[in-house]
Structures are given as C-alpha cells and as structure tokens.
Amino acid sequence: MNILVTGGSGFIGTNFIRYLLNTPAFTGQITNVDALTYAGNPENLSDMEKKFPGRYRFIKADICDQAAIEKIFDDHGIDTVCHFAAESHVDRSIVSPDAFIQTNIVGTFTLLETAKKRMDRIVRFHHISTDEVYGSLGDTGYFTEKTPYDPSSPYSASKASSDHLVRAYHRTYGLPVTISNCSNNYGPFQFPEKLIPLMILNALEGKPLPVYGDGGNVRDWLYVIDHCSAVWEILQRGKTGETYNIGGNCEMKNIELVEKICDIIDQKQVPGFNGSRRKLITLVKDRPGHDRRYAIDASKLKAELGWSPITPLDKGLYDTVSWYIDHRDWVNRVITGEYRSWIKRQYG
Ligand code: NAD
Ligand code: DAU
Global pTM? Predict the structure, then answer.
C-alpha cells in the first residue's frame, strides 16, 4: 500500500498514522497531506518521521487544490486513499459554515476527481465519515447503515453531502470506495475545543465546565485507537461500495461523562482545587439544532470483518486524562498558539 492520508495532522489522522506505522502487517508508505488549519499540528508526528524514515512523509497542501493533489498522487504513486481531512467541529460550523462547505464537500470532490483520473492504479478510496449524518435518535433504537440521512448542523450536512458524492463515484464511475460512519472519538491529541479535552483541561485548572442544555444529550463514545483499528480492517478487507458503521457500544449522557472526568481528576489528587470538581459543572445555553442522542449499531462490521471495540470507557477515559496531565507541554503549545509559530517557521 502506498497510502495517502488526508488530514493526518489532526486528532484521528495523527492517531491513525501512529497506529499504522506501528502495525507490523502494514509494510507500505504513508503520505500525509494536511493544510494545517488551526486543528492540524504536524508536531504530533515529528517523532514518526525520524523513527520511520522513507515510510512516512508530510506535505502541506489543501485538498481543494486540484493541481497540488494531482501532483502528490503522481509523485508518490498513490494507490490507496484514506480521507480524514475535514472541518470537524459542530459549534464552529454553526458560526461560520463556509470552510465546512469548501473542505468537506469541494475538498472531497477534488480528491474523488483526482482518484477517478487514476482509476487504473487506485485500489481503494476510503472516506471517513460520521454518525451525525443520520440526525438524532429518540430514547430508543440505533443507527444502522440503512438509516436515512437527516443531518442537523452545517457540519453534518456537509459530511452527508461528501458521503453522497463518494457513493456516486462508485455507482457512476466504478471507483473502489468504502465509507465508515463513526461515533464520537476521544483520546490523545484531540484539540481542546471538543467536549472531553475541554472538560479535562478546565477541570485541571479549576475553571467552569460548560455543559449545554440540560446535560441529557447522549453520545456513543469510542476510544480513538479502536476507531483506527476499524479503519485498518476496512481498508484491508472491506467490500468495495459498502458503508460500515463504527461505534463504541458506549452510550452516555454528557453530564454523566463530565462527572466521570471530574472524579478521575479528584482521585488522582491533582492539586489546585478544593473539594469535588463536580462543583465546576455549569449548565449553559444549548447548542442550536443539538442532536439529542446518537447510538451506533456496529453489528455489520462485527459480522463481516470481526471488529468490535476493545477499550472500556473507564480505562480509555483514565488514560486520556493521564495523557493530558502528562503532556502539559503539548497542551501549552496548543493553547498559547505556540504550535502555530512553529508551523510558520517550518512551512511558511
Ligand atoms: P480534526 O479537526 O482534529 O482534524 C482535521 C484535519 O484536517 C486537521 O489536521 C486539518 O488541518 C485538516 N484539514 C482541514 N481542512 C483541510 C484542507 N482543506 N486540506 C487539507 N487538510 C485539511 O478532525 P478529527 O476529529 O481528527 O476528524 C477526522 C475525520 O473524522 C473528519 O472527517 C471527521 O468528520 C471524522 N469523524 C470525527 C469524529 C470525532 O469524534 N472526532 C467522529 C466521526 C468521524
Ligand atoms: O458523532 C461524531 C461527531 O462527534 C464527529 O463527527 C464530530 O467531528 C465530533 O466533533 C463530534 O461531534 P459532537 O458535536 O458530538 O462533539 P463535541 O465534543 O463538540 O460535543 C459532544 C457533546 O457535548 C455534544 O452533545 C455537545 C456537548 N458539549 C460540547 C462542548 C464543546 C457541551 O455540553 N459542552 C461543550 O463545551
């Protein structure tokens, strides 16, 4: 495999590249193409560049830039695409949707066109998507691969649109695609705007923990490495033209999850706050169009490829809290924007 990973400097892409390079069955090369938006941090992988010389390279480029993308496909003999690059934060999409339309829809289209022109050597185009395309569940039921699309936010509508394009390129042109729709990920290297890292860092500093609405919204949490192993299985053995749901089988109300984070930090006796950090939880104005509940039925992936999540939430959450405590340097560079200065020095 000579694999193009898009968005490899973001949260899941970083974990995926680290996972793949450390997987003995993977003997190929990885080219990571990332535009380095606020969410992209190539420092996450600088050790991999040293540890795996010749097998990992980074190129700063925008997936909407057709000429740059075509050149990368040809210069590096790309035969497999694993497409993570996206604008990924729902709250940002509510305030400024433009970049979501551009990257998530036009960027995906650009990659599809480039791959279509090289159909003779592309063996797989895997598109990473989200369970948010299915909209919101009531108190019961699960999203399956057959659930109709019903996105609520500009983010999920842009991801739904990109999924439709990917499927259309398979049906119309025969591009060998697969799609995965995954639930909420958590783990190392996640930008501290998303719920879990934001709550960890605020709780560590004794700041308020803003929970939207009544805190009763439910998400299905998946440790990021389990997502990576699912994508790797699909890349190797997923059936062309198919969609696979990926989930953690781990539903939890936001308020309960935040309480768990507080309790872990209290148990670790992190100094700087007196009493239970649960006191920091503050209910705030709800997110517009806030989906109430997500829950994934991942039985197709289990039945066809034998994949199930293996990391229990309590372990994954404990490890994640520990990672943020042990990587204060990474956190400080991200929070202060110092990583942006480094990127400017390295890549202009
Ligand atoms: P992220 O925001 O952490 O990373 C996105 C990466 O894409 C960044 O490195 C950014 O620089 C890059 N990027 C953005 N625009 C680009 C462009 N025009 N050209 C090239 N690179 C660009 O996101 P993430 O959480 O790692 O999500 C990765 C993928 O997984 C996304 O497609 C997202 O929709 C999907 N997903 C995420 C989750 C989750 O819980 N985080 C769950 C399901 C699916
Ligand atoms: O379900 C998969 C999706 O999960 C991915 O496609 C998205 O890229 C990813 O960002 C995530 O979307 P969410 O909107 O579910 O994640 P977020 O971390 O923003 O919020 C999780 C829940 O917590 C959601 O119900 C909103 C709530 N929330 C979030 C923040 C940032 C709060 O209550 N307070 C907050 O400050």
Answer: 0.98
Instruction: Locate 61 and state its tokens.
Output: 């480029």
**Residue 348, pLDDT score:** 80
- Find where tokens 């998507």 sit: 129
> Are the beta carbons of 254 and 242 closer than 8 angstroms?
no
Catalytic residue list contains 132:
yes
Atom of ligand 2 nearest to the CA of 195: 18
- Domains with residue ranges and CATH for the chain: 2-186+221-247+291-310+337-347 (3.40.50.720)
Which value, to the nearest 10 degrees, does the dihedral of the CA atoms of residues 149, 126, 162, 58 take?
140
10-residue mean pLDDT series, the chain (348 residues): 97 98 97 97 93 95 98 98 98 98 98 98 98 98 98 98 98 98 98 98 97 98 98 98 98 98 96 94 98 98 98 98 97 92 88
The greatest distance separating any two alpha carbons of the chain, rounded to the nearest whole angstrom, comes to: 64
Query: 156 C-alpha to center of ligand 2: Å?
Result: 12
Smallest-distance ligand from the CA of 5: 1
CA dist 253 → 140, 215, 216, 292, 316 (Å): 14, 7, 5, 10, 17
Determine how β-strand 218-220 pairs with β-strand 251-253: antiparallel
Estimate the crossing angle of helix 108-117 against helix 66-75, to 10 degrees: 40
